[in-house]
Amino acid sequence: MRPRQVILGIVSMAVAFVIFVIPFLLVIFTAGKTAADASQIDFTPPVRWQFWQNLVDVVQTRDYQLLLAYWNSTVITVGAIAGLVIFGAMVGYVMQRRDTRLTRALYFVVLSGLMIPPAVVPTIWLLQEINLFKTLHGMILIQIAYGLGFTVLLYRSFIAAIPRDLDEAAIIDGGTPLQIFFRVILPLLKPVTVTIIVVQAIAIFNDFTHPLYYLPGAENVTVQITLYNFQSQFVSQLNLLFMNILLITIPPLLVFVFFNRQIVAGMTAGGVKG
After folding, report:
1. pLDDT digits (tens, 9 = 90+) for 14-71
2. pLDDT number for residue 264
3. Degrees to nearest 5, angle at CA 202 with 137 and 92
4. Domain annotation for the chain: domains and CATH numbers
5. CB burial class (10 A; 0-12, 13-18, 19+) of residue 156?
């Protein structure tokens, strides 16, 4: 390995450490301090660790609101991911296999969904008309709608590498369109499916803006909204505020750490094969 490459690698690791590791350590240190020590906001370990007590206090705040937020965020994430995978794969399959005016128009609509910003007020009006405003079901549909464009394009790119001979062989064997899709095509989409699940799950779980607009109400709180609600309550107790930040950061961080290789593999495969 050349000296220049070694130096560049060391510099990159140092920059990554400063940008990602040091802020995370600051959150951990502050979350384990007492209220008096945390008010200083300095990069030093706690003199007396109070990690467990701070964790209990945050969880018990506002009648265990954080646990309710975890449940709501999990329901929204799981429901939206299921819809994105099924509908995204189906639409991507049809768009790639059928080159018609309708599919070309649909492709334009998908691209428009990525480029045109969402309109909040008309969306709220629509949700109110169909009685889905302030409901988890409505929030799931919103997340599916906002993430469907990216999902369809990724699936369409990946499906382009699957030979049409598989479809034709399944048709000769008497398979219906749904059987061909679920038994032949969908199992081959595992790499890109894992990528979509991880990327979209992290984005949906960490979403703050959409639940704030479309899911008001104390009973509909999500994990990111708890941080917004706790800021005023814990303004003089930064140790509890940072503990809340730590608790809502750990799940997406663990998902990214354990599935990082699958994310890169799925994105690369989709890009190369398309």
Report:
1. 888 888 888 889 889 998 988 888 888 788 888 888 889 999 999 988 888 899 999 9
2. 63
3. 70
4. 62-273 (1.10.3720.10)
5. buried
Q: What is the pLDDT of residue 90?
A: 92
d(CA 271, CA 116): 23
Rg (CA), the chain: 23
Q: How far apart are CA 25 and CA 243, in angstroms?
A: 12
Q: What is the pLDDT of residues 204-257, one digit of tens each?
A: 999 999 999 999 888 899 998 888 888 777 767 888 889 988 988 888 888 877
Residue indicated by tokens 């309109």: 119
Contact 157, 270 (CB under 8 A): yes
Q: How confident is the model at residue 273 (pLDDT cuts 50, 70, 90)?
A: very low
Residue 271, pLDDT above cutoff 60 = no
CB contact at 8 A, 108 and 73: no
Q: Please report where in the chains the tokens 């660790």 appear, as a residue.
A: 49
CA dist 96 to 72, 103, 143, 197, 274, Å?
35, 8, 24, 21, 10
**What pLDDT is attached to residue 263?**
65
